[in-house]
Amino acid sequence: MTASDTTPADRAPRRRRFAWIAALCVALAACAPPHRAARPETSAGGAELHEIVLEGAPAETGGGGMFGASAPALREVLRAIDAARTEPAARGVFLRIGPLGGAFGRVGDLRAALVALRAAGKPVHCHFDVTDNAGYALLAAACDRISMTPAGDLELVGVAAHLFHAKTLLDTLGVEAQLLQMGRFKGAAEPFTRDAMSPETRESMGAMLDDLQADLVAAIAGGRRLTPGAVQGAIDAGPHDAASARDAGLVDAVAFDDEARERARVAARARRVVPVALRAPAEPVDLDTLLAALAGERPQDEEARAPRIALVHLEGEITDGERATGSGSGAAGPFVRELRRLADIPEVKAIVLRIDSPGGSALASDRMWHAVRRAAARKPVIVSVGDMAASGGYYIACAGTEVLAHDASLVGSIGVVGGKVSVAGLAARVGVHSEVLARGAHAGWSSPTAPFSDSERRVVERMLASTYARFLARVGSARRLDAGRVAAAAEGRLWSGRRARELGLVDRAGGLSDALRVARERGHLPDDAPVTVWPQQRALVDWVADALGGGRDGADALAPWGATGGWSALLRAMPQAAQGLARLAALAPLATGGEHVVVALPFALDLR
Predict the structure, then answer these.
(1) Are 304 and 532 in contact (CB under 8 A)?
(2) 598 phi/psi in degrees, rounded to 5
(3) What's the pLDDT at 578?
(4) Beta strand 48-54 with 90-97: parallel, antiparallel or unpaired?
(5) Residues 405/501, Cβ–Cβ less than 8 Å
(6) What does the CA dihedral 340, 345, 350, 354 come to, rounded to 10 degrees?
(7) Model confidence pLDDT, tens digit, residues 477-500
(8) What percent of the chain has pLDDT over 70?
(9) Among 270, 304, 365, 487, which is disulfide-ready with 395 (CB 3.0 to 4.6 Å)?
(10) What is the distance of C-alpha 581 from the center of its chain?
(11) Torsion angle (degrees, nearest 10) of CA 333, 337, 338, 344
C-alpha cells in the first residue's frame, strides 16, 4: 500500500503515534534532570568533606519514575560512604538526615558503613531538622558529633506497633471475612476477624517490641555514653525540642545546618565541602532509542563476561503470575526466570539475595523457594535480610546457602492464613440476590455471596494444614533443623533478627555489605569483582515500552489499577501512617477469590 492508498482511518493511528513521540520528546527536554556525577569530583591536592543528605530511608532497589530514581538505593548510599572511606582526598563526612520510619534493618547497614568510616580515622558529623527513632539510632551509634536545628523536632519516643482492625466496619457493611489460620500466633487474619488483638498476637508483638526497644536503647547508650536508664528516661520524656534534646545529652549542639557544616569542615581539616549526589543520573535517550521503545523494541545490554556476583532484590508483597506489577520485585514469574538464568551462567560465581518482604501468595512463595534452592545447589546463594523477611519472605529466604540479618530485622512469621470474604450480607442489603447451581458438593465453595458450609470449612482447613506442613518441612530441610526446633520457631511468631539467630533461622548477624563479602569469599572472587543487579533501575525507555505493551515482563506502567501491585504502590506513596494499610494489599487475592491460601504477615501492622 502506498501513501496515497491510505484512508483517514489508517492515518489516524499514525497521527496519534507521532503525537506521542512529540509529547515525549518535549517532556524529556523539559523535565529530565541535569546530569550529576554519582560521586564528587576530586581536585588534585584538595582535602574534601563529603556531604551526604538522606531525607528519608534509602530504597532497597532505588526504583523511580520516568526520569530517574525517586529515592537513592541503599547500595548507592553505602557506595558513597565507602568512597569517603577509601578516597585519599576525602577527610570526613557531613551527614544530614531525616526520619527513617521503620527501616531498622537498613539502619543497621548504614551504621556498619559509618562505623567503618570512623575506624579509618575520618570524622562523621551529623545534623538533622526532624528525625525519629530509627534516624536517631543511626546518629547516636555512628556520629562523632550530632547537631540539631533550633526549631527542629526529635521524635525519639520508643518503638510502637500500630495494628488496625476493621471487623466492625465490615459488619456494618454486611461483609464477613471467613479466614482461618495455621499457627497460634499467626495474626494476618485479625484485621478482618477481630476488633482487638488476640492474646497470642499481643504476646508475639510485645516480645518483638521488647527486642527492638532494647536494641534502640543499647545503640543510644553506647554511642552517647549514657546509662540505659538515662536513655529510657529520655525516651519517655520525648518527643524533644532542641533545648530538651541538648539538656538530655542527646545532641551536642543546637545550630543551623551551615554552622554545623562549617564546624565539620574544620574538624576534618578539609578545604571545601562537596555534596554527594546519591541518585543515579537520568539516562540520556535519543530519538532512535525512543522510536524503538515505541515499537516495542528494547536494546539488549551486553552480558558481562568477567567472573562476578549477582545481587537479586526481592521486595514487597509476593504475588503469583508471570508479569511484574507495581514497584516491587515480588512477582514469582520474573523472579524465577532470573534465578534460573543466573544459576546457569558460569561467570556468576555467587548470588546475593536481598529480601525485604512481608510475604504473600503461598503458591508463589513455593515456586520462588524452589528457584532459590535450585540455584543454591549450583553456587552459593547468600541471603541478606533487610527490614524483614516474614512469612513468605522467610519461606524463600530459608532456601539460601546462608542467611544474614541485623538484630533489628524482622524474621519468621512461619504460618498460614486462608479462606474467603463473604459479601452475602452486603448483597442482601443493597438488593442483590444470588443463587448458585452446583453439580458437586463443594462446587460453589468460593462464592463470595455465600458463607462456607461445615464441609467446605473442613476442606479449607485441610488445605491450610497441608500448606503449613509444607512450610515447616521446607524450613526444616533447608535449615537442617529437626521438627522440634522448627515447631519452636513457628506458630506464626515474628522474631527479631537476634532471636531468629538463636532459634537457627538465621546464620549470622550482618547486612548487605557483609553478604557481598561472604559471597566473594564463597565464590573465590577478589574484592573488586563486579556486581550485577536485578531488577535494574527503570529508565524512560522502560516506561515508554511498558506503556505501549512492550515492557520487560509485560508490566503496564500507565494502568496499574487492575493489579494488586498498583494499589500497593499507590498506598506506599502515602504518608507513613498509611503504610501499614498498604500491606493489606497482599490479602486481596482472598477477597477476590484469586487464591485461598497465603503465607503473610499481619499486614495492617505499621511498625516505627
Answers:
(1) yes
(2) -135, 155
(3) 45
(4) parallel
(5) yes
(6) -40
(7) 999 999 999 999 998 888 999 999
(8) 73
(9) 365
(10) 15
(11) 160
Ranges of the chain whose pLDDT falls below 70? 1-45, 62-70, 280-304, 324-328, 437-438, 442, 444, 537-608
Q: What's the pTM?
A: 0.78
Question: Which residue type occupies 397?
Answer: A
Give the three cell numbers for residue 542: 522502560
Amino acid letter, residue 287: L
Concatenated DSSP letters of 108-149: HHHHHHHHHHHHTT--EEEEEEEEEHHHHHHHHHH-SEEEEE
Distance of CA 493 to the CA centre of its chain: 20
Q: What is the three-class DSSP state of 607?
A: strand
Q: Helix, strand or coil for residue 338?
A: helix
Identify the CA nearest to 136 among candidates 72, 220, 230. Answer: 220
DSSP assigned state of 240: B
Closest to 313 measured CA to CA, from 339, 350, 333, 279: 339
For residue 431, how many other CB atoms are within 10 A of its CB? Answer: 6
Contact 546, 324 (CB under 8 A): no
**The cell 532470573 sits on which residue?**
338
User: Any idea what DSSP says for residue 328?
Assistant: -
Report the alpha-carbon distance of residue 19 to residue 14 in Å, rounded.
8
**pLDDT tens digits along 554-581:** 333 332 222 333 334 333 334 444 444 4
Distance CA 515, CA 172 (A): 49
Query: For residues 335 and 346, what is the distance between their CA atoms, to the nearest angstrom?
Result: 19
DSSP type of residue 224? H
What grid cell was written down for 320? 503469583
The SS3 assignment for 281 reads coil
DSSP structural state of residue 59: B
Query: What count of Cα atoms within 13 Å lies in the side-chain half-sphere of residue 241?
Result: 3
